[in-house]
# Entry
Amino acid sequence: MTLRSLQQEKPDRLRRRVVKSLLTGVALIFTGLWQRVRAADAALWPRDAFAQKTDSEAIRLLFGKQAEVSDQIKLDAPEIAENGAVVPVSVATTLPDVTAITFVVAQNPFPLAASYKIPAGTLAMVSNRLKMAKTGNVIALVESGGKLYSASKEVKVTIGGCGG
# Structure
């Protein structure tokens, strides 16, 4: 396209072409950046821990240490979950220097349900909806100051959420 043909084009049509070109360029740049971010996140994802069939092995692979029970962790979960496909849980703690919060459901086919890295200076509180195959304990793990702490609560499931 030449300069003369652009000058002869109607202003509205020219404006649309310019805006469309700019938006296409921005979309291409954003897509490239997003793919880089996703690739970096995937490299950090603890695939082996999430694939384990036992809670103790998943915890060992994720943290490499045993957890001790703490009364400074507040785990909110329902006593009875009418639908195991959607069990609301939340964790909050007053422990200092929290670096990770993890949910484990021992009775699930894959016990490690969710794991979050907590950035420094962030409020140590996480909410999620978990799937539970059947009645069992929901365990909240909190990594704080290089140590691992836990709290648990039994949730009775009336309809299974993991294919049951």
About this structure: The longest helix spans residues 11-44. The chain has a mean pLDDT of 83. Residues 3-44 form one domain.
